[in-house]
Amino acid sequence: MYSTFANQFYHLMHYGFSFLLIGIIAPFFVFSQTFANKGDQLISNYIRSVFIIIILGYLLVITKLYEVLSLIFIYLFIIGLLYLPMWKKVLGENSIFQVIFRLFDMLDGLIHFDKNASKKKVTSLPKSLLDKWKVLYHNREAFGKLIVLVFLFGYSFFIRFYDAVKHAAPPLSDSYVTLAWMKYISNRMLFHDGIYPQGFHIYLATLQKFAAIDPIYVLKYTGPLQAFFMIVMIYFFINRLTGHFLAAVIAAGIYGLAAPYIMFNSTERQIATNSQEFAFLFIYPALYFLSEYFLTKKKEALVTGILATAIIGLVHSLAFAYIGLAIGLLMITQLLLMGKKAWGSVVKVALFSIGAVVLSLIPLGIGEVLGKQVHSSSADYLTSTSKVELTYPTLHVMDYVSLFGLLVLSISLFNKKNSFKEKTLILFTLLLGLAMFFLFFAGGVVTNSVLISSRSMDLWALTIPLIIGISVYLLTKTAKPVVQWTFIAALILFLTVYIRPAPIEAYKMERDIQVEQYLQIRDSHTPKSFMIVSQDEGYAKIYGIGIHMYLKDFLERYDPTKPALTIVGSDEMDYNVPPDVYVFHEKKIFEVSKKNGIYSLLEPKYEQRKQDNKNFKKWIATYLQHGHKVDKTYEDQNFAVYHFYIPPIQKKERKRFWED
Amino acid sequence: MKSEISIRFNQPLFNHLINEILERHTRPEDVYEIAAILESMGWNDLRAAKEFYVEDIFELASQIWDTIQTKLTYATFATDEKPRLSYVIWEMIRSFLRGLIFAFPMAVSVASMLILRYSLWSYENLSVEQATAIAIGTILSFITVGGFTQAIARRGFFYIIQGYYNLAQKSTFLFIRIGFLVCIGIMILIYFSNVIFNFFPYRMFLLIILFFFFLNAIWLSVTVMYILKKEIIFTGLILLGILFVFVLFDLFGMDIILSQVIALCLVSLISIFVVLYYFKKETVKSEKGIALKLPRISITFYSIAPYFFYGFVYFAFLFVDRVNAWSANEDYMPYVIWFRGNYELGLDFALITLMIPMGVSEVIVNKLMMDIEASQKEYLVVNSNELYRKFLSKYYRMFGSIVAFGVLSAILVYILAHKYNQVSIALNDQNLFASEITAFVFQWGTISYVILSVCLMNAVILFALSQPKMVINSIFPAFALNVIFGFLLTRWFDYQYAVYGLLIGSIYMSIVSTYYVRKVIQKIDYYLYAAS
Known about the structure:
Chain A has 660 residues and is mainly alpha-helical. Chain A is built from 25 helices and five strands.
């Protein structure tokens, strides 16, 4: 079953391997190590890797070459190209000659293996780890920080990942679109449902190709993982720019453990796999590296920041607008603080940013060239205006806390003791905070845009940790450690006693058992050798793995009075479908809560499903009355699975494997 | 001044000196070597000036060098006795038959398929899944073992020609041991790759591993039989293997795959014992009483590395188009590689085209090498251009012959394949050319193999002149072209176009290898010297 330890362990191992391979291991070999800080380097490598995956994905999908072999070949080619000069050198660490010399020496017995040395090495590893642990244990501050981080990240991870490992059904209706689009990319189909940034789906498809597990697991794991990394990125941003542990922990803690207080209904997006959240993941790193560029003028920081920006553009338009605004404000901050001196770096960032915009628009332009239309529902959502008059949103505790933070930032602007770096952070956070607050508070009312009124809260929620983090830094930067640790203790106490974050839940479109049954069927058949008859959700799951048919079509196509599956109006069995056909019969239709905003949209569909299942009940009764057989492979009070077996064509008629 | 010197010059002593130097070294490399020899004979600047009125010993060495060079042109050479025509013809027939013997196992397998409907590792009613697994195992075995067969043959022949069977056995078994270790290493590697990437279900994976391992064992034994000139034994072993399958499958009703695996296992074991027996027999026969040791392993490895690499790339080149064709995405593509019988069948028929040109190539290259050996002693240094021209024209004739035999072979194969198909339809109701793809692949595969036969002839010539690097420089880019073009064409059009990858690779290789052969022939004396 889906949630068993063995099943989850197996799939998580595969997923983890793929994630590490394309995000950490391959970039380590491909990119030069240019950052002094290991954290900066790791994140920069990941950004560059994702960027390359997306660009490569677009190119390979357009040229119909997107597959594991091409990706492996290109990666090996790049590595070969980069390392060949080093390999060809006679001397040097990477010289192939040195390896050959050593091999020859070994073959001639000139190198002796000290068996004890390898033993010593193995035994010394835990010892060195133990020594490090002892040092850490005796350094109370470092040990305390470690405990806090383990608590913060561990807890945030747990509440996000719980659904992914416990429940098979994907959260939110969007998941099925993401799943289908990921599969379209895997099958080298670009903009299948219309023009929409496909960067995220390319990333997912690549992840899936190397993980080699059912795409549904990739879908289930990626959403929570990216939401978790978002928390890490907030911590990283504040900690690297302020060097203040308390500020970073509070900022990350708010997003990680108090999400319902800043995101409200959108909290469920934290466990869903959506392109918006994936794009959000790169916002803080983009801002960090660009800030670093303004402060240090390091070229690699600029490149990484712009690549992160380009990724956002290639993934989600709203997030791209946010980062565009944020970069603009960062440039204004530089101009306000440095005047003409900042001009050179500002122009450079502006030009590179324009490059990122162009780059993000190219795939969409290619879509136009390919004769595709803009994805209709996204376009409608982007341009639609509310039919009812929008009102100002109600402000909650965290909004007031953030406003207080903006006040702190405003006052701090006049503190002359602040360093240039601090001034940059304060002014930038203040400008961004004010912009986002007004967008959240008045954006919907002013523009009457459905998009702004519904999604501005997500953008505001993204900014709150920054405002609070920087404010906390300003308020406590001179405080004694004991005060800071008291704050942290209070925060942990508050979170665990008062908030007590529970695993995040989201609405589902189907029962877990429906997904589990699909997985069981796919595991017991070779790919594309079975057909499942079900509803909309089944299409995205089964596409590319097996064959899917809608229940309505099944009822119209097959005659229940004749052996399975005989086409209506004929005596011929349908040999165009695979021999194993499974029908998912919902005795009781699964529905989202009536309180859910999308219920009204789904209601007609539910009526149709009720009718289909009622008709199927009659169909199967007629089928059985005529003396035909069918297996029931699963049944509970709400749901049943029927298995029809179509015997293969007799041997004489069977084509041999060398025939068409 | 010059005339004064010549008057005083001690000619008899000078001639005596030259003779003494030539006794010590018949062909001194340069002036400096002569100077060194003179010094070792007790000559110094003072004595040279006294006896020959030269400035120093280097001037004397220079005069001796000039005289020796002139002498070379005047030296008479011994003309080799030309072998009798009957001997030459018999040798040619032997070489040709030896080339053809390789086709016997194939012929036995084909006959078995026609009569019994199965062979040692094929069966008419295999599922596509099983066929995929067996094909992958077979291809992997060829690619893995390719380098080792070259290494065994190169090193084995080297010792056997000198009569050192003991050393030949030692070196052969060293490579066989390493071959098995590499085979096991690859098995572990593909096991872990399969765990990570879920390429195939375990039932398929097991088949891949079993066929891969046993076929590896068999190919290694075949190579040894080849160097011991016992190729016909292998045909016997294939027959024996088919007999085992017959007993297990037909008489005992065992599963066909299990029967084949058991038969493969038995055949590979017997092969190893047969090889051991023959080596022992030959060693006893050629016992020289001196227990020679193999050179250092590093030296052996270094010297055979290019041949090993060639063997590996050659088999990779031969099979990569199949990988491209079978991995191309079609409507039904359950695994990353899915056997496409109609492609395989077309290529299998086309492969037969290579048989006759291979036999012919063996004959004409042997003849060429014999001629080169004889002719190099018949030409003066000053007439070396004539020598180049003679062999260049000989090479063009060889080129023409191999192309002619290739085309002839292709026509024969075309006729025979269609005759065979008629028999197959009549006997088993199987139309092997039912698919257009089979016919397409057969047609282009045949053309590719005719072109490849030229490459193989060139490769043999270059190997004979110890120029493996030139062969690698021809085959490696050809392999890359085969991969790239085959990959792109199968992804953009259809899987049967993988055969164009083979064609493009073969064309490239034939052009480049011909260029290299011409280059070598144009400086044949230099390359012969370098090879010796």
